[in-house]
Amino acid sequence: MKTLRTPDDRFAGLPEFPYTPRYCDVSDGDAGTLRVAWVQDGPDDADPVLMLHGEPSWSFLYRKMIPVLAAAGHRVVCPDLVGFGRSDKPTRLEDHTYARHVEWMRALAFDVLDLRRVTLVGQDWGGLIGLRLAAEHPDRFSRIVVANTGLPTGDIPMPEVWWQFRKAIQSAPSIDVGRFVQSGCRRPMSDAVRSGYDAPFPDDSYCVAPRAMPSLIPTSPDDPAAPANRSAWAKLCESPTPMLVAFSDGDPITGGMAPIFQRQMRGAQGIEHPVVRDAGHFLQEDAGEELAGYIVDFLRSPS
């Protein structure tokens, strides 16, 4: 598998993101290895909060939340998905499959870091990957937070706005990642923050993963990933693992999933689920401190 690796100097001077990256190698599923990056903060012996980002962002998205959770005594672990951030970037569209992305994060979380008693925080693709992990390895997870995400099976049509996003990011001559993130926010970003989202992608050759990810979402019942997602959804519906549903009030892509999670998930019953106000799809960017506060309260509550 051919890959690109973003030069370190692209990440110099990131605003509000002082964390030193850590690295490991995982199997690429093609007789080679991939370097996967993550940042972490908080006590090393505390139960971990695994925060997974989505498309087309990277762990920089969680910079407002990491200090809040670490200050509350939690070990916060924020990986960069393969193809994003400081992680290696496979250069062919066909190198990216849903199953591979689940496996790459599984290998990091369990084989390398041996995380246990995990609280998952998943947004966008972070939920699509993280919820698979939670369903397939329930003994590793103690709590789940879903935030502007879902677990598509292809049985329900995707909203039109998602199809528009897919067409835009797949057909654009070049991808302005910072602009895409800003378009998914309710509140304006500074130029420095937009540059932070652009940092992993020096030119379009590094953008294969952002282009590939929309096509990996099951949009029909016979999609290759549909059976695994359908099985995961069924397991999660019956799981007693406490689940906090913390969606924003302004996400046209996944907003309709909030009441479905609240209604269908056993672990979501009897929990007061917040609504993050004046926030778009990337609610970590719009209201990260607020979302982190809800998670801290959730972790303090009896399980």
Automatic annotation (TrEMBL):
Keyword Hydrolase: yes
Residues covered by the AB hydrolase-1 domain: 48-163
A molecular function GO annotation: epoxide hydrolase activity
Entries under Pfam families matching the protein: Abhydrolase_1
Entry-linked InterPro entries: AB_hydrolase_1, AB_hydrolase_fold, Epox_hydrolase-like, Haloalkane_dehalogenase
Keywords: Hydrolase
PANTHER family associated with the record: AB HYDROLASE-1 DOMAIN-CONTAINING PROTEIN, HYDROLASE-RELATED
Name of protein: Haloalkane dehalogenase
